[in-house]
Amino acid sequence: MTTHNPIDTARETLKQLTLRKLLPTPDNFERVYSEIMGVPAEARSNKLADLLLRAYESLPAEEASSKIAIAKLRRAIDDEKWELVPQLTLELAELNGRNRQLAQNWGSLIQDLMKAWEIRNPALSQNYKQSALERVLLSFGNTPDELNEKLHNLVKSWLQPAAGQPAQADADTTLASSAPVPSPTAAADEADDGDRCQVWKDVFDYTLKFGIEPRLVHYPELSQHFSDTRNALGSIHNSHDVDNFFPQLRSFLIRLELQSQDDERLVTGLSNLMQLMLQNVAELNQSDSYLVGQISGLQQILAQPNISIQHIYQLEASLKEVIHKQGTLKHSLDEATSSLRALLDTFLDKLSLMSSSTGDFQQRLHSHSESIRGTQDVNQLNDILQLLLSDTANMQTNLSESHGELLAARNEVHSAQQRISELEHALEAASAKIKEDQLTGAYNRRGLEEHFEREISRAKRSGQPLSVALIDVDNFKQLNDRYGHLTGDDVLKYLVELMHRSMRSSDIVARFGGEEFVVLLPDTGINEAVELVQRLQRELTKNFYLANQDRLVVTFSAGVALWHLGECDTDVIERADSAMYRAKLAGKNRTLSAETP
């Protein structure tokens, strides 16, 4: 027997590891060392790992996952990959524990379920099987362990009558041992029927409580009928009770539908009355142009087929702002009107005074004329002449003073008229504010529709082109999420200010929604319109926008469409929107024409 020096053996082991280009790990060192010492591989095996593998192989492994895990453990032990053994052992333990908790492993359970489903049994119809399976899945679908147990019992009850064996009811639905044992079909029907009714009752009660009850606050009669219907729901315990409940439920739903129809007719009637009143007010106050904006906004809202509460809220906010501004301006207008009326009264008084003075002067002239005819004395004629000269001088002085006062009154009247005109224009401008977007100052949807209709009519008459651009700010959601909505609002205002500065006075800018804007370009062909929008893009990217000390480059994508005869505004905007979407897909910060594919 050869005796090996441990030091020489260790040195030779390191040399072999180097020659074989193996890492000097403990496992590699042990294997090479054992080879040099002549120890067989079987003697070097891990006894604990072998015992674990043998123990797991002795357990029933019906599931494929368990068989695969055992095969992986065997391969790791054979390859001496001991670092994998602990993890594989834990996985096997977990699988084995899970299978022990289940009434039946899932693979065999599904196989038995398919088998029981295909078996034809007069006592168990396919509809009954489907209904029972749906109830189990609905009730226990979120709890796998209970679902496994319920499915196991269900499949067992299906298979027992077919095999001619006495069926056992589910553990949850068995009767006391002293009670008579029901037939398999009756016991299953009773248990399944009870479960189904309870689930159905819970779901339906939840729907009634949170879906219908809040809508009946203003309808006492319906609320009482609703309470009776919901109370009747609690007395349902089986299918027969459900059949008795349906007529009462149907009666309540019919009343609810009739009330809904009454509400709809009421809203329609009020809308028609409001439209008639607005039309009459508009006809009676055609000279009051400052009312046009409010009346037009209300008429457009009422003309919509589906009025949304958001539209009403937006119009309400706009009307409140406009009414406040117009109230202030109307007060100033009333003061200016009163001042003008006072000036006119003064003017008339002066004219009346002048007329009275002129009448007195005429009478004095007539008296002096009679005196001249009736005297031959030179001295008397001289006195009459002095009186005539004095009266003429006084008359001239009065006329001069009245002329100055009349000129001053005329100037004051002119100033008052100018002030009234300015206030009336301010009222009209305030009324027009209802068509503007409150955030950006651009036109809103109502203003856009009005201008669009006007420009289409003008394009029809003149035959000149009309182009429409749809602009959408790039990455606006990310900007809002990172810097906040206030920064996003400032970016939109900055963009609108730039558009007003860079574009022509005839171009119309409107906020279409969110970060989207529509620009109407009258008398502009498609190529020129694309160039105008591209120039706006270049102007926007020339400067940085500061947000929280960060310098941002704001860009937008745009689509441009040319209006064609016969199209309405929505048709053109839709084509421009498609072109804008293609610009987004092409890399953003681009302008594409809808007239070219």
Automatic annotation (TrEMBL):
<feature type="region of interest" description="Disordered">
    <location>
        <begin position="166"/>
        <end position="193"/>
    </location>
</feature>
<dbReference type="InterPro" id="IPR043128">
    <property type="entry name" value="Rev_trsase/Diguanyl_cyclase"/>
</dbReference>
<feature type="domain" description="GGDEF">
    <location>
        <begin position="464"/>
        <end position="596"/>
    </location>
</feature>
<dbReference type="InterPro" id="IPR000160">
    <property type="entry name" value="GGDEF_dom"/>
</dbReference>
<feature type="coiled-coil region">
    <location>
        <begin position="406"/>
        <end position="440"/>
    </location>
</feature>
<dbReference type="GO" id="GO:0052621">
    <property type="term" value="F:diguanylate cyclase activity"/>
</dbReference>
<protein>
    <recommendedName>
        <fullName>diguanylate cyclase</fullName>
        <ecNumber>2.7.7.65</ecNumber>
    </recommendedName>
</protein>
<dbReference type="InterPro" id="IPR029787">
    <property type="entry name" value="Nucleotide_cyclase"/>
</dbReference>
<dbReference type="InterPro" id="IPR050469">
    <property type="entry name" value="Diguanylate_Cyclase"/>
</dbReference>
<keyword id="KW-0175">Coiled coil</keyword>
<dbReference type="Pfam" id="PF00990">
    <property type="entry name" value="GGDEF"/>
</dbReference>
<feature type="compositionally biased region" description="Low complexity">
    <location>
        <begin position="166"/>
        <end position="188"/>
    </location>
</feature>
